[in-house]
Design goal:
- The chain is mainly α and 122 residues long.
- It contains 5 helices and no strands.
Length: 122
């Protein structure tokens, strides 16, 4: 197993996991919206270390500019699961990226950074 699959799983989870069903307006309600590419969101405490996963995906995004970051993050996660010996996860595409940092959700919607041991045992 390569060392980065867990980071791609975290990247996808952290992009999607900030969804708040009590907020009706998109993009303020969060969700898988590619906001982690903006410095204001990647610097949230819970996202510590995810900049490295983002850097690994940037060349793919540069080559396939029509793919949204939101879809790319979810695809990378599904691919990581498969590469680690897990099942093939069917993906539906069409997620919309936030277009500016001001559309990113506020910090605090995810728990703080956990160690790998804590993530696996939870």
């Amino acid at each position: 197993m390569r060392p980065f699959p867990l980071k791609h799983l975290r990247l996808a989870w952290h992009d999607a996991g900030k969804y708040n069903k009590n907020i009706e307006e998109w993009p303020l309600r969060g969700g898988a919206n590619g906001g982690l590419r903006f410095e204001i969101e990647i610097k949230h405490a819970a996202n510590a270390g995810l900049v490295n996963a983002l850097k690994l995906l940037q060349p793919i995004k540069d080559k396939y500019s029509g793919v949204t970051y939101a879809d790319l993050f979810q695809l990378a996660s599904a691919t990581a699961v498969e590469e680690a010996g897990g099942p093939k996860i069917p993906i539906k595409y069409g997620r919309v990226d936030v277009s500016e940092p001001e559309q990113c959700p506020e910090e605090g919607r995810l728990p703080g950074k956990l160690t790998v041991k804590e993530e696996i045992s939870n």
